[in-house]
Amino acid sequence: MRTGVWLVGARGSVATTSIVGGLALRANLAGPTGCVTELPDLRGPALPAFADLVFGGHDVVTTPLCKRAEALASAGVIPGRLVAALPDELAAVEEELRPAPSGDTQADRAAAAVRDLAGFRDRHDLDRVVVVNVSATEPAARPHAAHSDPEALRAALSGPDEVLPASSLYAYAALEAGCPYVDFTPSTGARLPALHALAVERGLPYGGHDGKTGETLVKSVLAPMFAMRNLAVRSWSGVNLLGGGDGANLADPAANAAKVESKQRVLGETLGYVPQGDTRIDFVEDLGDFKTAWDLVTFAGFLGTRMRMEFTWHGCDSALAAPLVLDLARLTAAAHAAGRVGPLTELAFFFKDPLGAPTHSLAEQWALLTGFARALHAAAPGSADGHAA
């Protein structure tokens, strides 16, 4: 099942790491550590092979992909030996990267994106293309009357106003091009009634939001522990220090607020109440593509005894996120092939602010994900339960 992976923000650190990783897996130069779709509970015939993934994308940046990969290797994000071993493969992907679509109106820019996606699909004779947004975090979208209805939205996009934020315009273009859409960022993306209706109209699945790679991943394990033990969490405060482009972007207060809101949801929705404390995100340029989080949890046990817990998470954001991008592309492609339409709530395992928010417990999310994968594999051509290929 030849599958295109079209990355919005294709020259960024997460996208570049995803591309290098996908190419390395295809060439058997690296193992799939970090790719949950390669675990026995998820692996199976419904998923496109790494060898069947073809990469392309949009970006406003023009730095050649090989130079971005070399810079990440110098920073210790990816092994330099892989970059050195894949010059031709990286050059081939470079040929499939396009500048951000231009045009006088948002309708013009969406049409340009649709042409890019259709051309990519046709050139490589792809069965489908999954669009994954890994671009910079946006401020929360301002409400607009056209957000509720696809026809009203189409009409408004032809006017002079900026009706949609960039992530939603890409979601619109992806759906118009017949491509499933995944938002790995906390941006608005497909979370508008008009875009949901368009996905249903086109018979397409979509997923998101905000990849869960660090502090929130730990919260999604610890918060259910406190809830199940009937321990009263009195406060939970976190300080996140980020470098790189993501950290620089989050120095903008509006983008920062959107990210913090996404990170905070897990506590209130898991515990059933909101403890004192908050989450802060600060940009520290020297950290580069690495990030550090310090969390302090105070809680009360039997007879009101006061206790506390602290943890530190230090990780490389791109190396944590990139395998999940590949996982999401494979699972979404399989969902599309199986005829799934609308929000893929079973992908909550991957996100801080998942669509439908069925649960924020990582263990419960894992159970949903494995059940989803079993159903996809059972229905796949060539499986014991599916029809013959």
From TrEMBL:
Gene3D superfamilies linked to this entry: Dihydrodipicolinate Reductase, domain 2, NAD(P)-binding Rossmann-like Domain
Similarity comment: family membership: Belongs to the myo-inositol 1-phosphate synthase family.
Molecular functions (GO terms): inositol-3-phosphate synthase activity
Annotated PANTHER family: MYO-INOSITOL-1 PHOSPHATE SYNTHASE (PTHR11510)
Any single biological process term in GO: phospholipid biosynthetic process
Domain of life: Bacteria
Residue span, Myo-inositol-1-phosphate synthase GAPDH-like domain: 214-318
Name under which the protein is recorded: Myo-inositol-1-phosphate synthase
